[in-house]
């Protein structure tokens, strides 16, 4: 049985559904929250041929808040790149994410017509998804996100160097006091070093938050990588 909460979705507005976007929220949030947040930033965050899914993470103990229950995709020792990943926790969410993708595949949407992205922890989950669990995705994006030093993601992209990988859009605020800009830059540079192509955009005077310019960049990225067919 799936541990994921309700799927909040934005239906495609055209006659055909030919692509899907899965947008993961940050820690302690929900699919409904990120959907509303995106709508407030860009009122027309919708696409004629694309369905946008906003899943909600399972409720589970989260170490950075003293082990209290929180809606998070996986557990972390702390919010820092300088700690080992909790791989057992990440593995538990892997099956859930793969099932989300499979449901779209079964509905006639191949992986190369799916984009997965997210905010904060949701962006980290998107990076695990695109570069470990389904490298056939159309593209990925990560806003205010990072990977741990020595992440298994780096190990796995090293092993497939030379193969085509989903392109990455990474966005980060220069005033982010939760996830330092340098952590995001290091993540992007290491992925690029191992063959990931993409774009890195710095948002001036932005903390750990979405903003209109960043969400517009995501919308443009989706339209570029999931054109109408």
List keywords for this structure.
single chain, 229 residues, alpha/beta, Rossmann fold, 7-stranded mixed sheet, two-stranded antiparallel ribbon, 6 helices, 34% helix, 20% strand
How are the SSEs placed, and which strands pair?
Blueprint: E1 8-10, E2 19-24, H1 31-41, E3 50-54, E4 59-62, E5 68-71, H2 87-106, E6 114-119, H3 121-133, E7 139-143, H4 152-159, E8 168-173, H5 181-193, E9 198-203, H6 212-225
Parallel strand pairs: 2-3, 2-6, 6-7, 7-8, 8-9
Antiparallel strand pairs: 1-3, 4-5
Helix pairs in contact: 3-4
Number of strands: 9
Can you identify the CATH superfamily?
Alpha/Beta hydrolase fold, catalytic domain
CATH topology label: Rossmann fold
Main beta sheet: 7 strands, mixed
In CATH, the architecture is 3-Layer(aba) Sandwich
Average pLDDT, to the nearest integer?
A: 94
Low-confidence stretches: none
Highest CATH level, the class: Alpha Beta
Radius of gyration: 16 Å
Tally of discrete structural domains: 1
**H/E topology pattern:** EEHEEEHEHEHEHEH
The computed structural class is: alpha/beta
């Amino acid at each position: 049985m799936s541990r994921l909460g309700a799927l909040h979705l934005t239906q495609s507005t055209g006659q055909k559904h030919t692509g899907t976007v899965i947008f993961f929220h940050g820690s302690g949030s929900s699919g409904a929250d990120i959907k509303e947040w995106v709508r407030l930033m860009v009122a027309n965050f919708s696409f004629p041929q694309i369905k946008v899914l906003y899943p909600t993470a399972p409720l589970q103990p989260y170490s950075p808040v003293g082990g209290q229950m929180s809606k998070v995709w996986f557990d972390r020792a702390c919010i820092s790149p300088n700690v080992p990943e909790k791989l057992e926790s990440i593995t538990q969410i892997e099956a859930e994410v793969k099932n989300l993708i499979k449901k779209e595949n079964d509905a006639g949407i191949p992986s190369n017509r799916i984009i997965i992205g997210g905010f904060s922890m949701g962006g980290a989950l998107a990076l695990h998804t695109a570069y470990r669990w389904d490298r056939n995705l159309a593209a990925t994006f990560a806003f205010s996100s990072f990977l741990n030093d020595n992440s298994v993601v780096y190990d796995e992209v090293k092993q497939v160097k030379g193969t085509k990988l989903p392109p990455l859009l990474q966005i980060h605020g220069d005033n982010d006091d939760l996830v330092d800009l340098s952590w995001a830059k290091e993540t992007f540079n290491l992925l690029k070093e191992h063959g990931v192509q993409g774009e890195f955009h710095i948002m001036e005077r932005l903390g750990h938050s979405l903003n209109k310019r960043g969400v517009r960049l995501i919308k443009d990225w989706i339209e570029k990588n999931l054109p109408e067919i």
